[in-house]
Design a protein that fits this description.
Belongs to the class-II pyridine nucleotide-disulfide oxidoreductase family. Pfam families: Pyr_redox_2. The longest helix is centred in the last third of the chain and has 24 residues. Strands 1, 2, 5, 6, 7, 8 and 19 form a seven-stranded mixed β-sheet that branches. A five-stranded parallel β-sheet has the order 10-17-11-12-13, with helices on one face. Strands 14-15-16 form a three-stranded antiparallel β-sheet. Helix content is 25%, strand content 27%. The chain folds into two domains: 185 residues, FAD/NAD(P)-binding domain (3-Layer(bba) Sandwich), CATH 3.50.50; 119 residues, FAD/NAD(P)-binding domain (3-Layer(bba) Sandwich).
Length: 314
């Protein structure tokens, strides 16, 4: 099989706010980056309908439209945006070797990893069908649309507790669906939700079906001890059972934490491999916002630019 081989100064892997911002900075610096979009061009924002918390869009913007704006801006300065999935890497040599779709080989002086993370879902058909129509994996992003309404959230970790508390500030009632008879969350977070009069915790409870045709209007849950089913009237259903960073392909070379998030040197986007940088949700499990991802994308491009300048001066 004839493999194409291509040589680039900056290769960007992933196309959310982090990847596109890195591309804007790198292309403006004359580094002629190539960006591969990955399996979900535009990243998690493409499954987010309204984005109202990104500065500069006073009337809000649809997630996919915003990513289209980012892409056009990167292309305007000369970024080559290509559809394709990185299927293999070899960071043991220089230039770094990256394989795309098992057929294109790219030799890159620097690699910026911005592959993001994917929300974990329950796996219900109704959850997929109503995604963006009342079903969301980000309370901080979408809670605002359910002000004064009743909502439910699934999860039992710190994130679920944090998001339930956030929702309780703006919604009239929050049902917290917890699968076991205890939570994984830290004690302080558990106390916070248990002492909040607006939050009702449903222990030993699982989701049977999210109800509604064009938008969420309820959820059917069952108690996994008594098998008793009941329906709750809600208009928003939030899933907070964790995220999975899309970093598997780099694991033989890049240091990660136990959850698979890439470790970067504090105050930078540098990884343990020289010339490989990581930004966005692939290395951030704390903030996970479009604006913070864009910020680290800028940092990664500047780090890569400095690295290349130092290489040329040697």
């Amino acid at each position: 099989m004839n493999q194409e081989i291509e040589r680039v100064k900056v290769l960007i892997v992933g196309s959310g706010p982090a990847g596109y911002t890195a591309a804007i900075y790198a292309s403006r610096a004359g580094l002629e980056p190539i960006l591969y979009t990955g399996g979900q061009p535009g990243g998690q924002l493409t499954i987010t309908t309204d984005v109202e918390n990104y500065p500069g869009y006073p009337d809000g913007i649809m997630g996919p439209e915003m990513m289209e704006d980012f892409r056009k801006q990167a292309e305007r300065f000369g970024t080559k945006v290509r559809y394709g999935m990185v299927t293999g890497v070899d960071f043991s040599q220089k230039p770094h070797v990256v394989t795309v779709d098992d057929q294109v080989t790219v030799h890159a002086d620097t690699v910026i990893i911005s592959t993001g993370a994917s929300a974990k879902w329950l796996g219900l058909d109704s959850e997929t069908r109503l995604n963006g129509k009342g079903v969301s994996a980000c309370a901080v992003c979408d809670g605002f649309f359910f002000r004064g309404q009743d909502v439910a959230i699934v999860g039992a970790g710190d994130t679920a507790c944090e998001e339930a508390s956030y929702l309780a500030n703006i919604c009239s009632k929050v049902y917290m669906i917890v699968r076991r008879d205890e939570m994984r969350a830290s004690q302080i977070m558990q106390n916070r939700v248990m002492n909040n009069p607006k939050i009702e915790i449903l222990w030993n409870t699982e989701t049977d079906e999210i109800l509604g045709e064009d938008e969420v209007n309820g959820v059917r849950v069952y108690n996994n001890v008594t098998q008793e089913k009941k329906e709750l009237k809600i208009s928003g259903f939030f899933v907070a059972i964790g995220h999975q960073p899309n970093t598997e392909v780099f694991k033989d070379f890049i240091h990660m934490d136990e959850a698979g998030y890439i470790k970067t040197i504090p105050g930078s986007t540098k990884t343990n491999v020289e010339g490989v940088f990581a930004c966005g949700d692939a290395q951030d499990h704390i903030y996970r916002q479009a604006v913070t991802a864009a910020g680290t994308g800028c940092m990664a491009a500047l780090d890569a630019e400095r690295y290349l300048a130092a290489m040329e001066n040697h």
